[in-house]
Amino acid sequence: MGRPLIRDDLTLVEGYHSPQLDVRVRLNTNEAPVPPPPEFIETFLTVARGVSWNRYPERSAAPLRARIAEVESDGSPWSFTAANVLAANGSNEVLQSLVLTYAGAGRSVLCFEPTYALHAHISRVCGSAVNEFDRRDDFTLDVDAAVETISRSRPSVVFLCSPNNPTGREEEPPTVEALLAATEAVGGLLIVDEAYGQFAGFSALSLVAEDRNVVVTRTFSKTWSAAALRLGYLIGPTWAVSAVEQVVLPYHLDALTQLAGTVALDFDGAMRDRVAALVSERERLVAALAEIGVTQWPSGANFVLFRPPDGDGDAVWQGLVDRSVLVRNCSSWPRLSGCLRVTVGTPEENDAFLGALSEVLGSSTDR
Question: Which of 46, 194, 360, 366, by CA, is between 20 and 30 Å from 37?
Fold first, then answer.
């Protein structure tokens, strides 16, 4: 008896993985460098004692969604409600649910490469055809060419990551508005992935409205120091949220996750302070990398993409690991030959990385 065969269209699809090594300084997965405030943990443990373990969680996650809407309405031109929010197990589940709702078999999506690998991966797993549009050499978008591509290929979903992962590029408001108009003209949905949105200056949340075909996805993993929680959400028009609710599984978001997310939002001020500190530390890291002499690209996120002077990213990555510092090796990714991506860590972690990098590059120069 033979083993069951996977779908033919999945035989060449590679999974998305990041090495987990035992090192002293881990700066490879864009996590927050410090845990949430102790007060958050204490409050969460207190309210968790009230969980009815024999009952299913709140199916619609209404309290969490209402609290997200309240926090995200602060500073936005719009006043969001729970009906504008969908929460799920990480922004990846949000993205998958959106693709299952609006793309899938017989439909196509458009990605601007290089970008977050799971946009294309999730789409292919869901049976969508994936069209890839190459960014310029500096990783900016040729807006006119992108608009023409949308008009010609007529994708059901257009992905735009801003700030973009792994390049760090933040899209300008006119770019986002042009892509949205082009997507709407072909009856598609623009998904703006803002996993790093709180580190940037512009948010597409300002474009979300009932008569616009755009949703914004965000995560608790970065800003809220809660990567272990696996909590993400989308904000969009109510009709898009209602449609996606038909796709997500019942009771998909457990009670503890809902509680933790709601409690975390009560520490919004502390999180904003941490974001400001990380942005300041990012600029210090950028200045230090410039002195070392690597090629780097502007970043609006909590990481920096760079390329060593000799372009040998593999050797430099290994040299850093040998010094107990782990960054993300992007050398094998399309368009990113020789590139490495470093997460902004604590000042001490960043100093350790910069010292190790200087040693590695000094060693390579001596060869």
Answer: 194
